[in-house]
Amino acid sequence: MQAGTPTAGHAALVIDTNIVLDLWVFEDPAAATLRVQLGQSDMPWYATQAMRDELQRVLDYPAIALWLARALRKPQDVLAQWDAHTTLVAAALEAPWRCKDADDQKFIDLAVQQRALLLSKDKAVLCLAKRLQASGVRIARTLDDATSIAASALPQSVSAGFH
């Protein structure tokens, strides 16, 4: 985990907890492109301490702990991956758009502040996609989905990070 000062308008990612679980707990094939890109791209993944705290809490859920145990992994392994890929920033100011799921609001707030690509599968987040688009935020379920969004809607500097 790197400490950083985000730069408004800089191409960036914000990734919600469910996608993180797909990456390093469930190893979902739909997250394979993202796993590769995180290792190769210089596009920053911004996160806050509250996001890390949420991940740590979720990793302790019995069903997740069982999944990790079956894969011979520990919560610390997932947190280490998260720490290695994220740039930790201060919590964002509240965005004018409210999410029905209060736990997801921090992801929306940070994505709006950074004008970032927000990766999420959460229905409460996805239903805000059109409203957030006007503020420069794109929401996608996977990086593959984001590629088509980037190619058609994001600035060239962002879409270049997906190839």
Automatic annotation (TrEMBL):
PIN domain segment(s): 13-122
Naturally occurring in which organism (per UniProt): Comamonas flocculans
Highest taxon of source: Bacteria
SUPFAM superfamilies in UniProt: PIN domain-like
Coiled-coil ranges (or none): none
Protein name according to UniProt: Putative toxin-antitoxin system toxin component, PIN family
UniProt xrefs under InterPro entries: PIN-like_dom_sf, PIN_dom, PIN_toxin-like
Pfam families found in the cross-reference section: PIN_3
